[in-house]
Amino acid sequence: MPNRRNHERLKTRAGRWLRFVSAPAVLLAAWEALALADYVNPLFFPPPSRLALEAVRMAASGELGAQIGATLHRTVAAFLAGSLAGLACGIVMGGFRWLHEALEPLIAAVYATPKLTLLPILMLILGVNEAARVAVPALSCFLLLAIHGFDAVRSIQKDYVELAKNYGLTRLMRLRRVYLPAAVPQVFTGIRLAFGQALVLTISVEIVSSDSGLGNMIWTAWQTFSTEQLYIGVFAAAALGIASLVGLRRLERKLAPWHEPHAEGIL
Amino acid sequence: MRLTCSNLSVSFGRRNCPIPALRNVSFTVGEGEFVAVIGPSGCGKTTLLRCLAGLERVHSGKVSYECGGGDRPPRILMVFQEHGVLPWLTVLENAALGLEAQGVPKRAREERARRLLARLGLGGRERAYPHQLSLGMKQRVAVARSFLCAPDVLLMDEPFAALDAQTRLKLQHELLALWQERRCNVVFVTHDVDEAILLSDRIIVLSAAPGTVTGEYSVGLPRPREAGMMLSQAFTSLKSALYAQLGFEGSQTCRTAEIMKG
Ligand SMILES: Nc1ncnc2c1ncn2[C@@H]1O[C@H](COP(=O)(O)OP(=O)(O)OP(=O)(O)O)[C@@H](O)[C@H]1O
Ligand SMILES: [Mg+2]
Asked: What is the ipTM of this complex?
């Protein structure tokens, strides 16, 4: 019997993967067919097979890896610095109501501003350098984690804290056994959003002002009309987005195995 | 240990328009006594237990514990009606949480928790998380946790309300057995008259909100109690007295029947 059950699980899993890749696959196949049949201008829309060959060439020469590496490096740096500071800020705000009241309008204002518009100002402050480029995505991460960290602290069930007190847990034990685990899911919502924003903003900043990274690669490709590289850059960015989402979700499942699973997804 | 509650009053709401929840509640729980509290929903039973546990601000009146010469502060533990288990801890960790707070080493506390969980019918589910359990199973985890801590006073808030009759009987039996082994004072809140009689030495009846004590009944049944006693004369006469006290007299039943007829 276990064999049969395994088989069925495999089947549903395979089925989910199939559905997952089917839409992009159909799209790519249609694209390929249209380009090969000259229905669309291959100069504007080079067939995916040619993109794949070019991607392999760029990967082999180390060019693609270098650009992805540069973008990832900035993204991760901004994400870590911004998120950690933001989380700390959110938790402190959760502990002191007056601080939250004082900072809330500021946070709301900056949150509503398109972050890229702050790049020139940050460059005036920090200079035209790497720090200013990373500061834009970092700021976004900071705000997201400040907001979600605050919510996480605030939305902890009072009942659980009372239970812990009633059973004599010390302050430190309460932190470890109640506050931290209770905050994980909400904080992770913030973390997922923050990483996505960090990636988007890093690439946007690279388009505007940088000589490396996927954003720079895409913009240079546009200006030199190397459409193949243009598409490869966009696909690489999308792949990074998906990979980070999968990785973070796995991490969350490891950190909060008790959290009721969301609708079963493929990632 | 002797628990005295005298002239306890609690209200909620704003200061200028308070909503009373308890009014002048007085009773005592003697050494090793099992007291049941019954009353309609919303009459303040949970509030009363929270006062006894020191979780609620008491507006007037007093709750006091007289220790029999012990040097440590009394251990007053609550089995909560809702949110009684921490969702991020496994069944085993939840059950052993109180022992962990007392500083019992991991190996020892898990061994003790495992044994009690097995007794309460949760053997083999130690690694499960609460979201994988039924409501009744979660309540059993909470009961296990409280008994493992060797409480002086155990406050139980409708722990078996969500169970089917069969499981409930079994757990009532286990609860009595555990209590018989380690006599602590118990204040057991329930809205089930049968349960109150079957388990307790004394029953305190609260009125509808704001709750006040409207009656106290001694349960004369011998111990150990058995389910078969529910058919005895003593049981049924006490039961009808309690129903009358709660306001389900013949006249009222008739009136309800009339309303339902239209
Ligand atoms: N934190 C609170 N704030 C305001 N009102 C409250 C609060 N807690 C309880 N009350 C009110 O006090 C009254 C008694 O509530 P309590 O929870 O003690 O009832 P209960 O007897 O336990 O009911 P049940 O049998 O349904 O559990 C209710 O009217 C309730 O609305
Ligand atoms: Mg209640």
From this structure: 0.87
